[in-house]
Amino acid sequence: MTEHEAAWPPEDIELALDHDSDIDSDSEEIYDAKGNLITDEYVRDAIGDVHRAIDEGRVPVPTSRPGRPSLTGESTHSPRVSFRLPEELRERARARAEQEGKSVSALAREAFEQFLRAG
């Protein structure tokens, strides 16, 4: 018997054991820390509990993505650009950034700005 009240998981979430699971879903029973048997209904109820807690404000929901402060100084998240480069070039950039006392990202932003200005 569970202590949960609502259906869990929501219709858009599917919980299932994968091929790497150590649990034999046909023969093993799994219990929570309070001794409740974990069943499909138990899991559905637990997801409902989490959604209710969020809806009722009992669980904080982040309003922004974690990470470094915005480069604009505003509350918006700075866009990210990534690209691949040879290891030797990456090491040269790391050494130059260290020599100048800045991050590789700062060095790359400066180089990109200079390149675009020269355009």
TrEMBL record:
Query: Which BP terms from GO are recorded?
Result: regulation of DNA-templated transcription
Q: Where is this region: Disordered?
A: 57-84
Span of domain Arc-like DNA binding: 78-104
Q: Name one Pfam family in it.
A: Arc
The transmembrane segments are: none
An annotated Gene Ontology molecular function? DNA binding
Protein name per its UniProtKB record: Ribbon-helix-helix protein, CopG family
Q: From which organism does this entry originate?
A: Microbispora catharanthi
